[in-house]
Queue: 4 jobs
Job 1
Amino acid sequence: MGSLSRNKRKIINDPVYGFVTISSELLFDLIEHPWFQRLRRIRQLGMTGLVYPGALHTRFHHAIGAMHLMQEAIETLRFKGIAITDQEAESTLIAILLHDIGHGPYSHALENSIVSGTSHEEISLLIMQQLNRQFDHRLEDAIAIFTNQYPKRFLHQLVSSQLDMDRLDYLKRDSFYTGVSEGVTNTERIIKMLMVHNDELVVEEKGIYSIEKFIVARRLMYWQVYYHKTVVAAENMLILLLARAKTLAETGQDVYATPAFDFFLKNTFEKKDFQNRPELIENFVLLDDYDVFTSIKYWTHHHDAVLSILSNALVNRQLFRIELQDQPFSQASILAVKEAILKNYPETDAAGAEYLLSNGSITNNAYIPGNDKISILMRDGSITDIAVSSDQLNISLLTHAVTKYFLCYPKNIIT
């Protein structure tokens, strides 16, 4: 048993942080679990690789990185005299390790397409609850921390807040893999400035500038990476494509898909279904990016013109044009595009043309003041919101959400 125990004390060489330590046998066993290993087959940034070719990193990378940052944060807080037991430390590490385990293929693009009205956080919790049963209820505290039911509230804030280890990792990691240097944040300094005051996670005053940079980096990364207009076009094409495939499948037409994907293509499930039917989770964790893209490649030759057009466009990166503006598009302009689609694609009908056009909005919230604020511990012991205490940048300006409206359609359409 001794040698087995040592074998589970592994290190992982991470390109962003260097060596990451797996600090307990339970963490090792969770990482080795097939449901967690599935995250190797789900890209962190979905369709973003079509714009930034290096953005091919996975949810597995991110989960391991967030766990590493959590280890650093716990070590910092303990050094400053904050009481965190070994059990609490392990449970907090488990909570952050598993925080994204409920992500489906292509992440946010398909979040509400595969499972209706259910977020990945809700799926993550259901998976954690099943893992808890498999691991003899050793995840009870981790689940309590994840759901903010644990007495020490600051542990949940480390997992989920506006300054959590999730955000600290994905900003730095996504910046690294995309090559967008505006997203670089000094995660090490931010973590060293963390403190707990009245059970609230706070940042010492001397860390203000690092937090300012973090908020600005987050805003820039949203516009340059997450909401890059070509990424938005590709993601909406994927949503349209899946909607078309689902419509065809539900009306009895032959739509090939891998078994794992076929199950969700031909059935519609809601949150209550997952809660009442545990076997649905076992189907969900078989699904990854490979299932979806393999099916899309097959659909390039599908007899349905719309499904074939969309599939070929995504496989060969013939992406739609996207228009952005500050006001919603008028119904007249949307109708003009629909008419142009019908004219240019005579093989489609009015119902099919609906799947070659997408309009909606994107909203950039760099920082939202309120209950979940980033609190600064001033030298006099008072607590202030970063939006108030910032003196170098007017962070309060960044608290205003910016919404842009988009209209997305094939590039050969002239209106």
Note: The chain is about 50% helix and 10% strand.
Job 2
Amino acid sequence: MSYKTLLVHIDDSRRCDARVELALELAQRWDAHLIGLYAVSEGISRPLFGTDDRFVAQLTALTADRRKMAQRAFLAAAERAGRAAEWRAPEGSPVDVTTLHARHTDLLVLGQPDPQDPASYVERNFVGEVVLGAGRPALVIPRAGTVPTLGENVLIAWDGSREASRAIADAMPLLQRARFVGVDVVKPKHDHEAGPGAIDVAAWLEAHGVRASFSTTPRLGTAGTGATLLNRVSDLHADLLVMGAYGHSRARERVWGGVTRTMLESMTVPVLMAH
């Protein structure tokens, strides 16, 4: 199994270059076609009501310049890496266009929003909305730190859910290349039973050539499952976390699962999410 088409989200943020570099490395790894999708906040190019025509023209020109700069940087990076790459800059809502284009790819590469970098803001809950709407796996890159390795030491968060199962299947090309794979079940402190379907998961992975170890980790007091998984990632020196993403709409607002919300806010290593 392999990923044959990758899509990396491009914006004007400081971390965009690192995201593109990682996407190019993955494209090289699987000899995959790479698409760069430029999608930025509509608010940057949308003038205020009553603004004069001259200001609108200047704002439009600035937006076009930023788009051209991003395109040149992306194609230059691809050329340096010796990879052919495709540039796309569709108009429309960033969530909607990214979701649509992601549905025609094998893996989506996104970046965690950075509160310290306004250019990383694309749309409210952009990453989560795309993950839940695209139907494709997304590799989300942390807003801080470097990614010297990816997929050598992988931790899978397993809870027996459909989403977790989907995430494992979608991560299989990475798991098959990993040196170490661990499957972790976070449970209440005094619950020592094996995780749901742990033996069956082991057999499933073994059938695909992936040998994995299993562990049950007591949940950290009131910190929650998400914080416990982050500690586990640190303890194991994992360079990738694989997990299901949870969320649903309620009263016109997205309600996120606790673990999904924690990871989107506080991830310390790349996280492959699937819904």
Note: The CA atoms of residues 152 and 178 lie 4 Å apart.
Job 3
Amino acid sequence: MPQSRRAFLQAVSAAATAMAAAPMATGQSTRAATRASRKLDLLILGGTGFLGPAIVESAMARGHRMTIFNRGRTRPNIFPGVERLVGNRDPLKDDGLAALKGRRWDAVIDTSGYYPRMVRASARLLADVVQQYVFISSTLVYSDNSIVGMDESGPIATMEDPTLESMGDQGQHYGALKALCEQAADEATGGRATNIRPGLIVGPRDNVPRFTYWPVRVERGGEILAPGDPDDPVQYIDVRDLADFVITCIENRTTGYFNATGPNSPTTIAELLYGCKAVTGGDATFTWVPAEFLEQRGVNAWAEMPVWVPPREGYEGFHRIDIGKAIAAGLRSRPLADTVRATLRWYHAWPRDRPFPWRGSLEAEREAEVLAEWHDRG
């Protein structure tokens, strides 16, 4: 290993150890919730998946009143005592949006909008009875991942048929549909929409647990296949930080478009992995394997190697999104140690009689095979 690279890893390890030493509360967050100066009545469309519960918890911790609107099928008893309205995002199905009629709220948070027709319907219905419409979008609305430092004015994905209600076989329409949903919310509310574009959302309750692979794998210990270069950038946002930012925007009546990922300061895949080790302890060691070698053996970035995407070949800016505007509006990221510990608590509490919902990630046998091939490459 070249001296510069060795020095880099030593520095990363030291920094990660310092982050891990940060205090952590036994509850949901290291930050004590600040009670709002004015209690708000908030409506959330969704509210029982991954981001939704974190938003409900953040709002209630700050003293706001919540109403949850959804089909009533997923975890219907997750928040006893919180008002629940049953309906359907699609106004053409079941009772549609009927349960929302004749009511007033200070703001609505739309965590479950994927098709512009449905977002337009809810935004139009609520435009006259809420002051603000918060739509949860995605950084995947951007059409060019090669731009380093992409801000909110970056080029947006489009699709030939904007009425199509399908993500596509490979999810290729997801970003364009989210962009159309943003436009629908903005137009229906006369510019009173807050369109928040998160990157990879991580932490407890993650129903697509990509990030979870790393804390769990590092905790298991032994030699770990670490992807690419140690200084490859990564971006992610703890679901609780995103939830806090949503509520902050509502309390301050902040509208507009915001890239909402993190951490607040740029970080790398090495900082992530060494940060996991600083929290979990153990005998984990990291063997850094170049992206080209992994590609030749069918080990894919983002899937088998979660979070990580090498910054090349059109993806130079994928993990270098500009979040300055969101930081100025109140986005704050917690220490990595907090996210790792909370993620591991959630993982270890998973019922052992139910399979954990892994998506991709590298199985132990395959990891050992690739590491052996790397060591034997001659």
Note: Residues 1-29 have pLDDT under 50 and may be disordered.
Job 4
Amino acid sequence: MKKHNFYAGPSILSEYTIKNTADAILNFADTGLSLLEVSHRSKEFTAVIEEAAQMIKELLEIPEGYHVLFLGGGASMQFCMVPFNILNKKAAYLETGTWAVNAIKEAKLFGDVDVVASSKDANFSYIPKDFVIPADADYFHFTTNNTIFGTEVRKDIDSPVPLVADMSSDIFSRPVDVSKYDIIYAGAQKNLAPSGVTIAIVKESALGKVERAIPTMLDYRTHIKKGSMFNTPPVLPIYSALQTLKYYKSLGGLKEIEKMDVAKATKLYDAIDSSKMFQGTAAVEDRSIMNVCFVIKPEYAELEKEFVDFASSKGMVGIKGHRSVGGFRASIYNALPMESVDALVAAMKEFEAKH
């Protein structure tokens, strides 16, 4: 039976990425060696990391003055690496979910943190509006997509101070005006590659302004200077990332991918909104097109586990909501085909009709 992969991360990858990575694990670049056993400094792998950085610059139309880095530690490492490198006295943060909360906690180790707005009062079911970013902040940080609660900021914010964004779960799902940001970072395991690599897009002029000493590994300048090769980078995820980037280019780039993502999300949200049994949990105007969160209406609450089992019997994996919120979550990242959305909608309708 075909599996429909709705896992939130690590999550679905394109067949193109999986096949090419599998081939390289057996024989990388006709070296007669596995990708898993070659030196990261070999000419064959150096070509991979350089091409991957170049493709990210091309797809996101990154202007001059920025560096693309491949780092370890996940987005969670960036929660401390960002303030370590650019927080002098005060930073401003938007609190929209679990990962924003974690980022705020780390930033407080390095200076004052002004939480300009929060949606905690409604279990992070909306994105705060009309907040004021303090002009004396060293930077303003926000999380573009909230995987657990299914909300998303789908436009580039205008900020009077340097802008930093965690785009872990929606990078490459739309064009981005990179020139508005000083730092963009993203764990790869949603829309790019297997877990183990994090990309950081860093504006060079943002660095070197703090007075504190920065540990070598946590200083962006270390990795810029060494082309992400200061220590051994995660070779396999970077190779997979390159395959995904090539696949995105073949689809026509980010404008085309955004159209496909919006079409998938629209179809699923329409099914939820027209249902007598299911309902969405995020504010309609802030709904994520990457993570669709929904629940069974209270009068059918006892059927929640039964629906998960029913969906599983139809080949669906990963639709159970995050343990902190319950309900259901369908993660419909770039690589998920429309046929998987169609299958989920059909399963919802069949289950509803049955009950």
Note: Residues 4-11+253-354 form a domain with the Aspartate Aminotransferase, domain 1 fold (CATH 3.90.1150.10).
